[in-house]
């Protein structure tokens, strides 16, 4: 989101190679998704130390990928703008010239919008959760529009940095102290064509970003392939997200998610309401309406190439694509 943010970095060139997160839509056979195995990962810049939170708050609403509303423990409410992060717009049209290398074409704008929605989906995982807020010593506490400028920390990880490293946002011009590390992460994501940087080509692949659909009121599927740190040691940060973009509930009971090697997860009793999402984590945990767990002891998704297949309970392939 670009409101209140000025300036951008100039990048010499961007060559799309692989995606770390791809959107597909139910009924669109051949839509793309991405997946990793430990020991063979897309390069990722070394993350800076997670900033130490100075105050906690509960996320009450996610506006988009880089803006969220919070409530402090004393009941007061505020709006947070993520330090250093600019995700593509979802409520108004993104200007591609703000994202180096992305063509100012219908395909370029559509591609960025899909990744803006993916960034929003990432941030929405924190809806209702208690998070930590940290502030940058080089910046005022509030930006031009009066919003808090902060790093958002959850489960000892920085939401801000994760969005940049996974290609879901660009670094905006600012004197924040962590800018060099963020720029390194952006450059790494861009050189690999990760996330929105896939759009930085003369002809962005609409299949890869989900802009070509057989059914616009379908199921969007995204994959967070590269867990923070070692995949095998952070299995629940490797996950598949299913989002119901349609107007009717989807009964996922008996549906399966399968990788190229045949590793299969089957959903139990679960209904996905319109605009709702469910996250399938590779590791173990207690299933809820929003998070389910595969229970595997090692990473599943392979960055070097794989095929993800989603099948309905009757065996019909809902989405499949090799990369």
Tell me what the structure shows.
The protein folds into two domains: 45-191, OB fold (Dihydrolipoamide Acetyltransferase, E2P); 211-322, Lamin Tail domain (Immunoglobulin-like). The strands form five sheets. The chain has a five-stranded mixed sheet. A five-stranded mixed β-barrel has the order 2-3-4-7-6. 13% of the residues lie in helices and 26% in strands. It has helices at residues 106-124, 159-165, 179-191, 206-209, and strands at residues 24-25, 55-64, 67-72, 77-82, 85-86, 130-134, 148-154, 157-158, 170-171, 219-224, 239-244, 250-251, 256-258, 264-266, 271-272, 277-281, 291-293, 307-311, 317-322. The protein is globular.
Keywords:
single chain; 323 residues; alpha+beta; OB fold (Dihydrolipoamide Acetyltransferase, E2P); Immunoglobulin-like; 2 domains; five-stranded mixed beta sheet; five-stranded mixed β-barrel; 4 helices; 19 strands; 26% strand; globular
